[in-house]
TrEMBL record, chains A, B:
<dbReference type="InterPro" id="IPR009075">
    <property type="entry name" value="AcylCo_DH/oxidase_C"/>
</dbReference>
<keyword id="KW-0560">Oxidoreductase</keyword>
<protein>
    <submittedName>
        <fullName>Acyl-CoA dehydrogenase</fullName>
    </submittedName>
</protein>
<feature type="domain" description="Acyl-CoA dehydrogenase/oxidase N-terminal">
    <location>
        <begin position="26"/>
        <end position="107"/>
    </location>
</feature>
<feature type="domain" description="Acyl-CoA oxidase/dehydrogenase middle">
    <location>
        <begin position="111"/>
        <end position="205"/>
    </location>
</feature>
<dbReference type="Pfam" id="PF02771">
    <property type="entry name" value="Acyl-CoA_dh_N"/>
</dbReference>
<dbReference type="InterPro" id="IPR037069">
    <property type="entry name" value="AcylCoA_DH/ox_N_sf"/>
</dbReference>
<dbReference type="InterPro" id="IPR036250">
    <property type="entry name" value="AcylCo_DH-like_C"/>
</dbReference>
<keyword id="KW-0285">Flavoprotein</keyword>
Automatic annotation (TrEMBL), chains C, D:
<dbReference type="Pfam" id="PF02771">
    <property type="entry name" value="Acyl-CoA_dh_N"/>
</dbReference>
<dbReference type="InterPro" id="IPR009075">
    <property type="entry name" value="AcylCo_DH/oxidase_C"/>
</dbReference>
<feature type="domain" description="Acyl-CoA dehydrogenase/oxidase C-terminal">
    <location>
        <begin position="212"/>
        <end position="354"/>
    </location>
</feature>
<feature type="domain" description="Acyl-CoA dehydrogenase/oxidase N-terminal">
    <location>
        <begin position="6"/>
        <end position="90"/>
    </location>
</feature>
<dbReference type="InterPro" id="IPR036250">
    <property type="entry name" value="AcylCo_DH-like_C"/>
</dbReference>
<dbReference type="Pfam" id="PF00441">
    <property type="entry name" value="Acyl-CoA_dh_1"/>
</dbReference>
<keyword id="KW-0285">Flavoprotein</keyword>
<keyword id="KW-0560">Oxidoreductase</keyword>
<protein>
    <submittedName>
        <fullName>Acyl-CoA dehydrogenase family protein</fullName>
    </submittedName>
</protein>
Amino acid sequence: MSHSAHIGDRVRELLAAHDPGSTDRLEFLRARFDAGLAWVHYPVGLGGLAAPRELQRVVDAELEEAGAPDNDPRRIGIGLGMAAPTVLTYGTEEQKNRFLRPLWTGEEVWCQLFSEPGAGSDLAALGTRAVRDGDDWIVTGQKVWTSSAHSARWAILLARTDPELPKHQGITYFVCDMSAPGVEVRPLRQITGEAEFNEVFLTDVRIPDAHRLGEVGEGWKVARTTLMNERVAIGGAAIPREGGMIGIVAGTWRERPELRTPELHARLVKLWARAEALRLTGVRLRQQLAAGGPGPEGSGMKLAFAKLAQDISGFEVELMAEEGLRYDDWTLRRPDIVDFTGRGPGYRYLRAKGNSIEGGTSEILRNIIAERVLGLPTEPRSDAGPWKDLPR
Amino acid sequence: MSHSAHIGDRVRELLAAHDPGSTDRLEFLRARFDAGLAWVHYPVGLGGLAAPRELQRVVDAELEEAGAPDNDPRRIGIGLGMAAPTVLTYGTEEQKNRFLRPLWTGEEVWCQLFSEPGAGSDLAALGTRAVRDGDDWIVTGQKVWTSSAHSARWAILLARTDPELPKHQGITYFVCDMSAPGVEVRPLRQITGEAEFNEVFLTDVRIPDAHRLGEVGEGWKVARTTLMNERVAIGGAAIPREGGMIGIVAGTWRERPELRTPELHARLVKLWARAEALRLTGVRLRQQLAAGGPGPEGSGMKLAFAKLAQDISGFEVELMAEEGLRYDDWTLRRPDIVDFTGRGPGYRYLRAKGNSIEGGTSEILRNIIAERVLGLPTEPRSDAGPWKDLPR
Amino acid sequence: MNLLYTEIEEDLRASVRAVLTDHCPPSAVLARLESDSSYDASLWELLASLGALGLHVPEEHGGQGASLRETAVVLEELGRFTAPVPFLGSAVLATTALVACESDLVASLASGTTVGALAVPLTTAPGSPFPATVSVEDGLLTGRVTSVVDAGAASLLVVPVEGPALYAVRADSPGVTVTEVVSLDMTRRIADVSLASTPGVVIASGDRATAAVQSALRVGAGLLASEQVGIAEACLEQTVRYVKERHQFGRAIGSFQAIKHRLADLWLELVCARATARHAADVLATGSADADVAVALAQSECSELAVRAAEETVQLHGGIGMTWEHPAHLSLKRAKVGQLALGTPGEHRRTLGRLVHLPMDIPSMGQT
Amino acid sequence: MNLLYTEIEEDLRASVRAVLTDHCPPSAVLARLESDSSYDASLWELLASLGALGLHVPEEHGGQGASLRETAVVLEELGRFTAPVPFLGSAVLATTALVACESDLVASLASGTTVGALAVPLTTAPGSPFPATVSVEDGLLTGRVTSVVDAGAASLLVVPVEGPALYAVRADSPGVTVTEVVSLDMTRRIADVSLASTPGVVIASGDRATAAVQSALRVGAGLLASEQVGIAEACLEQTVRYVKERHQFGRAIGSFQAIKHRLADLWLELVCARATARHAADVLATGSADADVAVALAQSECSELAVRAAEETVQLHGGIGMTWEHPAHLSLKRAKVGQLALGTPGEHRRTLGRLVHLPMDIPSMGQT
């Protein structure tokens, strides 16, 4: 029997046993996980059926049509996109059984404790210390840019276990209980007025060695699995023409003739053309991926998207003229989900500034393209010695 | 008696003794040199009166008014701007007496043998060898970007006299006789079709040690005097509003309404604004210099000028539409004087590409601004070892 | 034409900077954002005591009898610190309008005892039609003016009224409503002003009123360029400092060539913009016929520079530049709003094109 | 919509590239500049033998019955080598016009035995009015068309004539004068064409003639984008190679971050431009209603990219890139002329704005 037919049966069985109309949301999600329909390419017993990844779309579509609840993936993106593949690849059987089910159902939210004030682009320079103490590790340090930290139960955490080694060595990867004593979460307000992120202060936090992922000192290798999955996620989905920010501005242009000037027109059409070109580039990238091509173009999409979003939103404030002087609301808020295009022009302008910083600065992405795609030589290294001796 | 009154007397004496209307041009120039009115800030006996430099303008103006011939300074720019100050600073008495007078009168044209195919931005990496042989040096190598080489009698030359030392050491500065055996000059054609420059091949050229400027191994120090004077020369003179390229394009715009589009209008006005801003920057720079300020702004003028010239000339070709498809003449020519704004739009476009390369690339100028003006750290050095071991 | 700073100007700068360094550090400006009082009244008094509020006001009207060149220098410093004082609204726009009318009222603005505001939308460009959204009947004013800069701090409103005329209105008069709006620039706020049968005093009418408003807008746009030079200069200095200190990959990030080249380019743009701003201030001070060209040039160049400098500052600070607690956003918001204030760069360039005889009229325009 | 290259297309590319690598190295192109024959006739024959000249010509008219997608791939390769062949004039413009008229004459163009040229100025944009500068009387044509691409190589001229009509004219007919002009693009020359009572054969008239010319211009502009992608790609590859080899200051200059970042940006622009060029070729091949948008987008993006890539190539090669003996200028000149050919980027964007309903009409336009 083909994978696809088999999966079709499983979906029907799930729906027959748990009528979406009358079943409790969480109960349904747990049943779906147990039926192997959470992520079909995961192993049997861990929410999957060891089936080809692309069949997931079929499952999702059928369940959506039947009115089944989903696991609100935007709310638990870090768990799904980063923690889960890492736990799957490096976790012990016990860890996989413990963590994956509530992660997928959203019962337990995850966050990421990687970046530090002194280790941003140069993540491997991180200085949060973990010192062995019997069966535990004692962790102290400061992490930053942590979204969902205030609602998270677990965190994936990188800490330095040996400062005598060069920076990429001597790092170990842990799962940190966010409710443990010594974990303090403070909202980190941004220039938009919102606090999407948090600072997390770790003071003598005890983590059992059983919550280590991968070997001691192998944390960088483990983290690469996590980060690779982040990059893939950023590739983004198909959007229609005028999807995203350009559509908002084009709409304003059409509805508000009094705002038009020839100079703004020339700029708008140029932006429209860039947006459409980038959209087509995304279409082409997905066609390459589907055809199995390696598609180095992916590395550039985020870079181009950030620049475009900044240029469009900067243009929009100018276009709005007197309305551009205003802002909708400076109140400190902690949004669960960030919508770059939501709210007003001022918000879009300010928020877009982060696009070229978060998840890899544009400077770092250009380095990556130059070195990995174009094969240009690396800079002479200045950070080869022991971590403890690096200038900072 | 004040300098200025004294100089006024000297001018009148010169004119009285050598009526410009009836005196042979060369004879007049020699007499002017001997009267100390060639470059008044030079020492007495070497064409000057040890007077303040700014008095030269008065002399030039008075002599011009009296209808006296000048020494055609654009034709002998390298001699006047680069060779002369270096000979003055580092030459022996004999060298100064031998070289300066015919240099200034234009009887002997000078050129510069510094750059090499493998040593452009990194001039100090030059590899032309000079080996001592009795009272002579024997020089072999290839030089490039030499303007006036085909009409020059003398060249200022940098050659490596010790390859075992780091690159800035082991260089020696010579005066090379361009009519000596072993000197071969070939025109170097550019993308404009013209050959403004030459390649110069040196094969076992004998240079007497008496034509060395400065000490053996001190050539880099000597060259800095030469190059500093080149940079000052590039600062440029005062121009009126719409002087230079922008004036040509603005004129076309005014005369040719059929070429106009709103997009081109927006771009033209932007270019006009940049040109006027840069012009005012030049005015301000000269005011700073006059006020004795150090004016680091000077380092940027060439960079900004090059970019502007390229942008304007690129715009102009677009503006010209069908005429932009054409070129005036691809014939190989060896112009004595280069006029960036002469000829047609295609020529201006192509010639302007050189503005960001010749006399210090824009990349090098940005390094200079970043390090010397902004005080940013230098790159880690990769070229500290002996010259002979450098990768190339 | 003198594009340099005179010794007197440098002395003035030093005094203003000393006050601002002591009383207006970024921490204080940031803390004020959370407070109820948008404006720093004690800083305003200190600036008044330096004579900085009436520099270009004639001595017979209670000012310093200096020129707009000196006022421009003060603006550079206020821009450096994104100082939360109503200088643009009161000491530039309202003051210039009152000086043009030779009104005695200017004395109290010059001394700082009164804060004034010119009741026009902040986006009004020089050369715009007289902005008369207020009508007069029986000496009472009625109408509404949106987005008036510094109106929230003003006790004296200088109001263009149809006619045209210019009226002085006390902000505590009957029928006056000043509604602060949420401003993108948090250190320079705007407010909507409503008048309902409000008494006012006419201070100019006819061509004189028109000329006064035009003078204020022209001077405002021209001098705002100096503020923007100050913003850009502070951003560049702060960023250079940061990239020298911040280490990643074992090096100061300021040693990476891509960053060096970007900052070199920014420095060069600043050098050029400064020449245009000084030129505008000088030409405005001397009353040259070239003033409109100089203002359009300076405002278009400097407002774009300030935005670029502030944006580069955020980017090159990385994450920290995106935080509320870092002052980079104060400059960013001031710069971005400055792009809209008193004419956008596009509007100024359009004006410039007209002034320097680069016309845009194209026979085929209608088709597109 | 398929934006990738099919296997067939990749095979075609490999064949064309092999021929060009052997017969059209930069040294040969440079040497030809000094010779009397602008075009490489033997290369033209080789391309004909590959079937590359009639890819989008139906088989019944002697072509390959493939599509414009394949022709676009050939153009990419010709752009990479700045090949001196009359492909744009003959295999694209004239051929497309003849295909649109279903004229038998196209067979000899597809086979390469005849070189054709479409007698319109190279700067004519799609959507322009029918370019009728030639009149007809008693079946004899008289008039002048300037800047016709590849006319100097053509034996068959496809001539728009007032009426409108489209005529075929043999270049050796009485009254025909073809005057080569000095072209900025030395590897793709233009010529002025004069007709004086010249006999011709009508191949289409009325709407059909108009449609044929429009089709040729649209296809020409859309496919030129692919050539420009080829130019940019070759420039980037050549520059990357050079900066890896060239050492200054003891390092490959390609290890300096400023250069790395510029080349990364250029690569990214190339990636985006390629998507638009492939899209245009695909949409033209399938005859979608979106063709005009796709062409305007691709041509405006790709022509600017090619110029930028060629300019960066010259700059990053330093002095050597300014020399006649280095091929960088061939790409620069081809790219710069390409910016004017078949509509400037500005014209295409204006068209785009109209097509996607971003109108420019502004009530106040007349004032400026």
